[in-house]
Amino acid sequence: xxxxxxxxxxxxxxxxxxxxxxxxxxxxxxxxxxxxxxxxxxxxxxxxxxxxxxxxxxxxxxxxxxxxxxxxxxxxxxxxxxxxxxxxxxxxxxxxxxxxxxxxxxxxxxxxxxxxxxxxxxxxxxxxxxxxxxxxxxxxxxxxxxxxxxxxxxxxxxxxxxxxxxxxxxxxxxxxxxxxxxxxxxxxxxxxxxxxxxxxxxxxxxxxxxxxxxxxxxxxxxxxxxxxxxxxxxxxxxxxxxxxxxxxxxxxxxxxxxxxxxxxxxxxxxxxxxxxxxxxxxxxxxxxxxxxxxxxxxxxxxxxxxxxxxxxxxxxxxxxxxxxxxxxxxxxxxxxxxxxxxxxxxxxxxxxxxxxxxxxxxxxxxxxxxxxxxxxxxxxxxxxxxxxxxxxxxxxxxxxxxxxxxxxxxxxxxxxxxxxxxxxxxxxxxxxxxxxxxxxxxxxxxxxxxxxxxxxxxxxxxxxxxxxxxxxxxxxxxxxxxxxxxxxxxxxxxxxxxxxxxxxxxxxxxxxxxxxxxxxxxxxxxxxxxxxxxxxxxxxxxxxxxxxxxxxxxxxxxxxxxxxxxxxxxxxxxxxxxxx
Length: 580
Hints:
Layout: H1 6-10, E1 22-26, E2 31-34, H2 36-41, E3 46-49, H3 54-72, H4 78-86, H5 93-100, H6 156-169, E4 175-176, E5 188-189, E6 202-206, H7 210-216, H8 257-261, E7 266-273, E8 276-284, E9 302-304, H9 306-312, E10 318-320, H10 333-337, E11 352-353, H11 356-366, E12 375-386, E13 391-403, H12 412-443, H13 448-471, H14 479-503, H15 507-511, E14 513-517, E15 520-524, H16 526-541, H17 563-571
Antiparallel strand pairs: 1-2, 1-3, 4-5, 6-12, 7-8, 9-10, 9-11, 12-13, 14-15
Helix pairs in contact: 3-5, 3-6, 12-13, 12-14, 12-16, 13-14, 14-16, 16-17
């Protein structure tokens, strides 16, 4: 074995159960760094975890959940969960559990270093820069990072957090082969995919404290729709399994969340001395394909993939539904709460499946274990990879708060109206974008920039208002009246944004010009564009003075259409997104 600083490493000690390394935010906004034991002891007084990146927070939360599931032996079902929720000291058994397994939580243990492989080395004894595991140092683009030009050293605490993150979100690409890995060819291992969480459009539920957050995300498979692929008797976290060797373990499915949340997707070993960690050996670990893992992974939504069905000859194939960095969490509410569970036998498979986590919370509120006005924050986290998944291009981090009545199985009207309210906003912003397009065309200028700017402005302003509206939609409200009020609010806000566009249109737009729409020519000016815009708002939202039931956007009523727009629409069809 090549000469390394192994002797120095053997003398090091960093116990993750006792030494501070997890970043937290207190209820008063103060930041701190705690050990595993302290996090569970103080969870009731902490607001949340924080991380060097949002993806690190998600990876660390899943680690804590694996500890909690294993230490508490559950929850077994809704009733067991309710007992934990009611017990202020429910995490008390975690202390004894960490005492029992503390040897596996030693970052520099000589035989079983935490989430690492003792003695891991390459044929030539190479030790890579810490850039390989620190995700905020983009390879080839260090000017985008606060760490320039590279990471020379990390504290033990920082290194521990990035080790957890590497198993969850490490990039793909060609990696240097390690001795003992049968996949090595010519000193390299060719791309085998990103860390498991990197495949997901990650989502978790946040409560008022870290204690509530941990409990809300502790699912019981027996009472959760769709979690069918668990083997509770064999569901063990990585530290209760045999230590990994340098190569991959036999191909297998995860046995449950304790296994999945601690999946060893990489083989790595930190190199350190008394002043910190200065290098790493990093290789591929246990492979895990994303296809059809909806029966065991609760913290992502799923989409049906016809491509995967054809490729593998399967009747149905589901892939994780990744987040779109350009789409805010509130606009994707339907993917979290829509009732799109497995169809009845013989029916066509659903195109989308919501996160099993929210199916679980649905059981809690439907069983009256959570009050209908209990406010939960759906927090979405994800990584967008680029260049054959060899780099992280973007990190998605957003949230939307909602009362859990939206998940109540017998009160689906709340979810339906909340989702329809998003559609209201989408259609109104589309009309605003069309107005910007028509004004630009009337003036004879490029329309793409104004359209994009108008849409961004519309979604930005409506996003703030929608979040406030949604958080107030609890079990005591009338969801239909609430949506009708939302439509009036959208009409007022988007109408005002349209007024601003008209006011800034300029003389050329007011004078107008002849444009070509499909195969015919029409005259277009700011006045006509304004009339079409008001007509569109009235069609999708109703007249601002209307009251009662929300407007049915599937049809049009003359009562909701301004007279000027009626005369304009009779003269010519508006230029809409579909026409441009």
